[in-house]
Design brief:
The protein has about 130 residues and is an alpha+beta fold. It has 3 helices and 3 strands. The protein folds into 2 domains: about 10-50; about 60-125, 2-Layer Sandwich (Histidine-containing Protein, Chain: A).
Length: about 130
């Protein structure tokens, strides 16, 4: 076997400070991204702090959305749609078989009186291999 040739690197004058000046810029961007990502958590914390374990009307709204979903047989077993409500915002999670079923569940939740917003986190079942 032949030995690998030796590699040598030289740093040109003036190139090292350019690399160093990009580090603070990168840190600024990372800080900005971290702060932006935490804002959503702040809103949930404020709501939780305001309402504790549930705001007035959340339980009734959740029950209404669950009852409306139960009226749609295509959303029942083997599909699973979980409903949570926090400060009038309806959070849907679980799994369904098709996009149409996911859209139906979101539309049903939006039609409930008192639903300020619907957050659809419903996943689609993977049929297998």
């Amino acid at each position: 076997m032949h030995p690998l040739p030796a590699l040598s690197y030289t740093i040109e004058p003036g190139t090292f400070p350019v690399v160093m000046s990009s580090v603070p810029r990168l840190r600024s961007w990372l800080l900005l991204i971290a702060l932006a990502g935490s804002l959503g958590g702040c809103a949930v914390y404020r709501t939780w702090n305001k309402c504790g374990s549930g705001c007035p009307g959340d339980a009734a709204l959740a029950a209404e959305v669950r009852a409306r979903i139960a009226e749609h047989t295509e959303l029942l077993a083997p599909n699973e749609v979980d409903v949570r409500v926090l400060d009038g915002v309806v959070y849907l999670s679980g799994t369904v078989a098709t996009d149409l079923q996911r859209d139906t569940a979101a539309a049903v939740a939006r039609s409930a009186a008192g639903a300020a917003r619907v957050v659809d986190m419903i996943g689609l079942e993977y049929p297998g291999w």
